[in-house]
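We modelled the chain as a single entity of 162 amino acids. Its sequence is:
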Amino acid sequence: MSKPTLTVESMNAIEVLLASGAPCCTLLPIVEPEVLMDGDHDIDCCFDATEATLREALYQLAQQGVDLEGVILKPNMVLSGSEASDRLGPETVAEMTLTCFSHTVPDAVPGIAFLSGGGGLETSVHTVVPIGWVAAWQAIARADANVDTPFARKARSSFVAG
């Protein structure tokens, strides 16, 4: 992805195919709108491509009548290309990935899963763990003290002092 090579038309066709298969899943559709990490692109290029891909995938899921509350989304992390000279650290990757998701993924989607992101196990763990921590802190910051769910109680008792 050194230079954007995916046209809007081809992205639309890919996402239509992904979305059209989701209603056939009787238990749990796992949808993988992924931007590949091959190339020397910077993280901003990946952010833009990921944002466009997620928007189109979620639009097509809605067009197919897929209940987003029953979907697991399996996108890429927002990373510089595997050949990029300016690889950024896990905290930046976490912040940009979650910012991208906050722009595109509706609250109805119950889960997001990741694979390795093209890196090895150690690199993947060092990237995914900060995403989890940043997401947890963002959720706590947004949490209303009057929300009484098991997750909200656990988050308050685990992360909020006093």
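As a brief sanity check on the tokenised model: Residues 121-142 form the longest helix (22 residues). The helical segments are 8-21, 43-63, 90-104, 121-142, 150-159.
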